[in-house]
Amino acid sequence: MPDAPAASHEEVLKRLRRIEGQVRGVARMVEDGRDCREVLQQLTAIRSAANQVSRLLARSYACRCLNDSQTSEDYAALMDELLDVLSQAA
Question: What is the pTM of this model?
Answer without folding.
Answer: 0.72
